[in-house]
């Protein structure tokens, strides 16, 4: 293992992380909801009431629009370098959806929200997806 | 209406946070997961900052009787550490590692890079719906 000091961005990572935590906190404070993106997406397709669907869509609209507005204001393009192409890209997407539905949460719900509530369930989920993600990258990159 | 405006603003804060953090760049995410290669520890600070702010703030927020704009706090009630939790999380981790994308960044970059993210989003939703059907079948 070596540390990639050239790509290490501690300040922006911490600052961005704090904003993510702030958003999770505000959603709980204002609407009493856990900010789990897979759950918010999944709830769009349930038998939820139309009012329930509306706040989900409003939130997701903000998530889509925020970075676009940010990019327009700062005039600095948001860097995006894909790692997966072809079948790997589609399989990955399907597994992300499938896994978060079965495991009832993703990096935001279990990670940012669950860990902040000291939920043992979320702690186990985070350990499980971190381990399998690290193992997957190790296999793809080094074997 | 004010509730919807709040939801949009909070969503935007989340999306901008992801952008600043570097989470919208799959290559950076995989750089963090690649602990056996040239490891970029940045994203540990994303998780650290997020959990820190949320954990400290929740101590005050959850002292309130109700949220500011709704009737009650909807906190998860499940507490059992079961097979679906672990198995689902392992499956999610494989997908996350393969593409460097988890659900938040997928939504946040939906319209950022032309139409590149749309098929990913479509397949993610297909997986989500398949997962819900499976969970209903097994009665969980």
Secondary structure topology:
The complex is a heterodimer of chains A (143) and B (140).
Chain A: E1 2-3, H1 10-31, H2 37-42, H3 50-74, H4 86-102, H5 107-116, H6 120-142
Helix pairs in contact in A: 5-6
Chain B: H1 2-21, H2 26-33, E1 38-39, H3 42-61, H4 83-99, H5 103-108, H6 118-137
Please explain how this structure is put together.
The complex is a heterodimer of chains A (143) and B (140). The mean pLDDT of chain A is 95. Chain A has one domain (9-142). In chain A, helix 5 (107-116) packs across helix 6. With 143 residues, chain A is mainly alpha-helical. The two termini of chain A are 15 Å apart. Chain A contains six helices and one strand, in the order βαααααα. In chain B, 65% of the residues lie in helices and 1% in strands. Chain B has one domain. By secondary structure, chain B is mainly alpha-helical. Chain B has helices at residues 2-21, 26-33, 42-61, 83-99, 103-108, 118-137; one strand at 38-39. The mean pLDDT of chain B is 95. Chains A and B meet through strand 1, helix 1, helix 2, helix 3 and helix 4 of A and helix 1, helix 2, strand 1, helix 3 and helix 4 of B.
In short:
Chain A has 143 residues and is mostly helical. Chain A is built from 6 helices and 1 strand, in the order βαααααα. In chain A, α5 (107-116) crosses α6 (120-142).
Tell me, briefly, the overall form of chain A.
globular
Measured on Cα atoms, how large is the radius of gyration of chain A?
A: 17 Å
Strand residues, percent of chain A: under 5%
Shape summary of chain B: globular
- Spell out the helices and strands of chain B N to C: HHEHHHH
What's the main sheet of chain B like?
A: none
Strand content of chain B: under 5%
**Proportion in helices of chain B:** 55-70%
How many domains in all of chain A? 1
Oligomer: heterodimer
Chain pair sharing the greatest interface:
A-B, 110 and 117 residues
Helical percentage of chain A: over 70%
Note the gap between the termini of chain B.
35 Å
In DSSP terms (H or I, runs of 4 or more residues), the helix count of chain B works out at: 6
Mean pLDDT of chain A: 95
**Rg calculated over all Cα atoms of chain B:** 18 Å
Total of helices of chain A: 6
Using DSSP, what is the number of strands of chain B? 1
> How many strands appear in the DSSP assignment of chain A?
1
Could you say which structural class the secondary elements and strand pairing of chain B correspond to?
mainly alpha
């Amino acid at each position: 293992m070596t540390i990639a000091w050239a790509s290490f961005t501690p300040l922006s990572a911490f600052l961005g992380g704090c904003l993510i935590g702030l958003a999770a906190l505000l959603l709980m404070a204002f609407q009493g909801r856990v900010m789990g993106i897979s759950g918010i997406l999944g709830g769009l397709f349930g038998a939820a009431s139309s009012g329930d669907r509306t706040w989900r869509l409003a939130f997701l609209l903000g998530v889509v629009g925020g970075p676009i507005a940010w990019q327009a204001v700062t005039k600095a393009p948001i860097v995006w370098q894909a790692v997966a192409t072809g079948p790997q890209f589609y399989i990955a997407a399907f597994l992300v959806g499938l896994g978060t539905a079965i495991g009832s949460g993703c990096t935001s719900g279990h990670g940012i929200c669950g860990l902040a509530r000291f939920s043992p369930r979320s702690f186990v989920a985070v350990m499980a997806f971190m381990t399998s993600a690290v193992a997957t990258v190790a296999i793809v990159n080094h074997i | 209406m004010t509730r919807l405006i709040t939801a949009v603003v909070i969503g935007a804060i989340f999306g901008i946070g992801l952008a600043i953090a570097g989470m919208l760049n799959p290559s950076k995410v995989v750089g963090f997961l690649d602990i056996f290669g040239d490891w970029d520890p940045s994203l540990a600070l994303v998780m650290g900052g997020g959990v820190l702010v949320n954990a400290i703030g929740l101590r005050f927020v959850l002292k309130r009787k109700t949220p500011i704009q709704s009737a009650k706090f909807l906190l998860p009630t499940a507490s059992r550490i079961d097979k679906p939790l672990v198995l689902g999380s392992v499956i999610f981790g494989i997908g996350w590692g393969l593409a460097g994308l988890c659900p938040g960044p997928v939504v946040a970059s939906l319209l950022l890079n032309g139409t590149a993210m749309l098929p990913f989003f479509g397949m993610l939703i297909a997986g989500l719906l398949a997962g819900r059907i499976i969970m209903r079948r097994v009665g969980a």
